[in-house]
Amino acid sequence: MAYNEFKLTRTTPSQLKGVQESYYYEADLETIDQVLAAGYFTGFPCSDDCETIVTVNSSDGWVMIHPNGDGGESEIVDFLSSSYSTKNGFIDYNDTGTSTTPITLVADTWTDITNNGLGLFTNKSFKPQGVSELMDNTTGDLDVADLPLGTTILVRNDFSVTPNTNNALLEFRYTLGTGGSAYTLEKLVGRLDSGSGKPYRQSLTPDLIYMGDTNTRDNPIGLEVRLSTAGTLVNAGSVIQVVRQ
């Protein structure tokens, strides 16, 4: 989608502080998400730090924005009237692959947690508006490329680890970014000290990740565990809650 200059009308300058020019834009059947998306206003005579306001009449409400003519995402200034109530939401991905073939954990080795999303309890009925998926089910990585910068996600993972030796140490981490900007978010889950050969379920604790830059937002976010001894892992799944600004 791209904006149509013939749908743009100049209006009386806004009274908002610092605003120099104001426009009205008729978006017809396009949604707020589509109008805000990176590249939509490419060519508009206004950069990402412009002092121009465009009042947009979209298919799901009226919104005031700072348009970004440089190809980036546009910024919401204010909602005037909107049915944009599903901008937040969640998707729950239930795995079936590891219940049949558990993931083998090699001692002291970071190992990917896979999730095929094919389980009976996968739930996509309440996903946020403008979001197609939040996970790549070929890898189990989180895929948050559809989210605007400034968005926060809460991730609640549910998996069970069976250590071959008692008192094994379990760690978990997310891998984010790419190349020289790659980084991790790690946590010490704890000692599995109630015996070997039995599953220890890890669930209910959410982790917060925010989309502070494109390095985080535009690259896969991997889920990994490391166990101090050999063992196996069965993944029930992950639910990802989106919280937009």
Structure characterization notes:
The chain is mostly beta strands and 245 residues long. It folds into two domains: 5-82, no CATH class; 89-243, Sandwich (Jelly Rolls). Helix content is 5%, strand content 42%. Strands 6, 7, 11, 14, 15 and 17 form a six-stranded antiparallel sheet that branches. A five-stranded mixed sheet has the order 1-2-3-4-5. The longest helix has 5 residues, at 32-36. The model has no long low-confidence stretch (mean pLDDT 87).
Q: Give the averaged pLDDT, no decimals.
A: 87
Largest sheet: 6 strands, antiparallel
C-alpha-based Rg, rounded: 22 Å
CATH-level-2 architecture of the largest domain: Sandwich
Rough outline = elongated
Distance, first to last CA: 23 Å
When the domains are counted, the total is 2
Poorly predicted runs of 5 or more residues: none
- Class from secondary-structure proportions: mainly beta
The number of distinct β-strands equals: 17
**Proportion of β residues?**
35-45%
Q: Figure out the total of helices.
A: 3
Helix content bin: under 10%
CATH fold label of the largest domain: Jelly Rolls
CATH class of the largest domain equals Mainly Beta
Q: Helix and strand string, N-terminal first? A: EEHEEEEHEEEEEEEEEHEE
